[in-house]
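Appendix B, example 12.
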Amino acid sequence: MTLRFGTDGVRGVANTELTPELAVAFARASVSVLARDGGVSRFLVARDTRESGDMLEAAVAAGLCSAGAEVMLCGVIPTPALSCLVPEAGASGGIMISASHNPYEYNGLKFIDHAGDKLSEAEEAAIESCAYEAECARPSPLAGRVGRANGLVTAYAKRLRSFAPAGRIHGVCIVVDCAHGALSELAPRVLTELGAGVIPLNCSPTGTNINDGGAVKPQRLAEEVRQHAAVAGLAFDGDGDRLVMVDEKGAVIDGDQILGIWAKDLAARGALADDLVVGTVLTNGGLELFLSSFGCRLLRAPVGDRYVAAQMAGAGAALGGETCGHIIYAPHLSSSDALLTGIAILGIVARSGMPLSALAAAIAKRPQVSLNLPMERGHEILDDPDIRLAVSEAEGALGLQGRVVVRPSGTEPVVRITCACDDERQARAVAEELATVVERCADRERAHADIAA
């Protein structure tokens, strides 16, 4: 099985697609690509709560050590914590063992460079090449040792607390859904230390229950928020880099609304660099209109928080993110940190004196319809001329104010179709027609493959 980098690392079913042998190869390759010249290379390794984490952690550590790197095992921490800790430890890089929002049977490897940033496509290509080509293999030294990460997580928690407005969330009641993932211990602890009354939900990982609840399934969180009369609910994904919120009425608040709330607060305090926010091609048009109401512009990047981060860096923006809940605040990190985002929004609720529902209601969403089509070879199928023609016709049908996005997922074997305009029925009709064309082309491709076989 050959695994390739997607929008966020390498992912596959653990032990069949992402095997220990492959983890060793990718880890060894990362030393060749990321290790700086001179001295002993140091790498930090972290994981989420999946049952395959122990197996892959051992494989990654073995691969790194066999290439002569010192390894610091951080255990179960969120991805943003690893991004913070790598530069603080003076490490050459970090590897997060997680498949984020995917089901527990999947796992993955996310790579971080010495500055705590996600890798460039060129660096990913180099690691991929080294992992699969024997001539790129790094020589095996006679020695290498595994270290331990002592005190690093405490430093990350202190950093998070420093972003909280003093006393602002003291005594407020919040429900925290950690999806039985990497924030299961850390998020309730940090928020409690900040003085909040925390009701933990889905904070008992077994290794097989990751993403049961959390950002991908916030329905129970909504019920708990209403039941406990909480001011808000925070829902994280398995590795702690995505946040979805629930307001005091139980309504779900997505990444676009979170971006809008945070952007307006920063702009009012003169802290929104160049009055810019970076979203993606899927960001709802309602956010763009909301931002323009106070003189802010939205720039759109391709889907994937790495592309958002790159656009932010190029434009000098302080804030960006995705509808799914990846929110990047550049003064803190160049990648998304769900717990930091939650702390920031809770602070805005407290400072404004307004309930979260009222803050979110200011961002009026435009109709947007998204369909997911299960499809293994989406990248190849979308090059079909019939699909290109159908997309062009769909764009014409929706007009200048409409948007059409047809793309293969970078994390799942699906093709995603999104259509937006002022008329939800029209958007849905166009999306369904596009889905029919894509499925017809996929069937034709499969039939040709069967004949060739």
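Residues 424-452 form the longest helix (29 residues). Residues 169-253 form a domain with the Alpha-D-Glucose-1,6-Bisphosphate; Chain A, domain 3 fold (CATH 3.40.120.10).
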